[in-house]
Amino acid sequence: MAAKSAGQDKKATVKPAKPGNKPNALQTPLKPSAELAAVVGEGPLPRGEVVSKVWEYIKSKDLQNPENRREILADDKLKKVFGKDKVTMFEMNKHLAAHLK
């Protein structure tokens, strides 16, 4: 038998939620504000999906600063969400949280 490498035993697997268990904070659907809904859509979405959709929007509009890819240069829609012209990818989640209920 060939020995397994350490990485093969520790593959990340997503466990389905058991019936009766509450979803965790990332899985709970939240309603976006009107400003955020203009970017991600109207319906309630889990927080992780909101972040993914915002990144899709940023990449489709080429809004990352070419000199510093960690910075997001906000267009008119994102300025309403972020409250300023430029944010880092790390502070983006703080701004998104303020627009989710």
Automatic annotation (TrEMBL):
Domain of life assignment: Bacteria
Q: Which residues form a coiled coil?
A: none
InterPro entries under this entry? SWIB_domain, SWIB_MDM2_dom_sf, SWIB_MDM2_domain
Domain DM2: from-to ranges: 25-101
Query: What Gene3D superfamilies does UniProt report for this protein, alphabetically?
Result: SWIB/MDM2 domain
One Pfam family name is SWIB
PROSITE patterns from the xrefs?
SWIB_MDM2
Q: Where is this region: Disordered?
A: 1-30
Specify the protein name: DM2 domain-containing protein
Lineage from the top down?
Bacteria, Pseudomonadati, Pseudomonadota, Alphaproteobacteria, Acetobacterales
